[in-house]
Amino acid sequence: MAEPSVNPLAEPLPDGIVPAEVIARTEKRWIKMMAAMLLIMLVVVVATGIAGAMHPPSNVEVIDPTTLHLRGEFVESNLGAASEPDGSVTVRLIAQQYEFVPRCVLLPAETPVMFRLTSADVVHGFLLPSTNVNTMVVPGFVAEVRTRFANVGEYAMPCHEFCGLGHHAMWAHVRVVPKDRFANPTAVQRANCE
To answer: Which residues contact 81 (CB under 8 A, 6 or more apart)?
Structure first.
């Protein structure tokens, strides 16, 4: 007598081989999870882009760049380093093509320093190499950076954002002196390193 023919597709699978239905179901789950993760990342990118456009990093307040020199915090007599009642020092600077005003700032060592900067025209960069000071100076905003100088010496302040044809010559300096040599400066002394 002849043996009945056995359907090879109806036979149980050997150990270690997963049925096609299980594979298809698992792949659909992974596709759904990846699509959800991609959607979440897209939402995060769009939200941070909108938030960054509304409030550029390190810019804490808005200011009218057309009236900087006329009134308010950035009038010429208020620029440079000024001692605060708590013992810290605030430095106010304006970046404009192709200079920082003032060009040199005298600061005490081992003292908290807050730089407040704004731009009168285009985007500039503010960098003090070998320190934590590095920010963009955007017209219409006041950038604020805090630091402390441990060592006495002179620090170069280059503009590190291309701001036009004279960008390569846009440099200023910070001269750090011992704390006992730094007195509360007058309006004229604020804007130079003498």
So the answer is: 89, 90, 91, 105, 106, 107, 185, 190
Question: Residue 65 carries which DSSP code?
Answer: G
> How far is the C-alpha of 102 from the C-alpha of 193, rounded, in Å?
10
Architecture of domain 62-190: Sandwich (2.60)
Residues 97-151 have pLDDT tens digits of 888 889 888 889 999 999 999 998 898 988 888 888 888 888 888 888 999 998 8
Alpha helices in 19-93 (DSSP H): 20-54
The enclosing H or E element of 188 equals: helix 187-190
| Contact criterion met (CB below 8 Å) for 146 and 113 | yes
Q: Computed from CA positions of residues 14, 17, 19, 20, in that sequence, does the dihedral angle turn out positive or negative? A: negative
**Which residue ranges make up each domain of the chain?**
18-54, 62-190
Amino acid in the structure at residue 46: V
Report the C-alpha gap between 100 and 156 in whole angstroms: 12
What letter would DSSP give residue 149? -
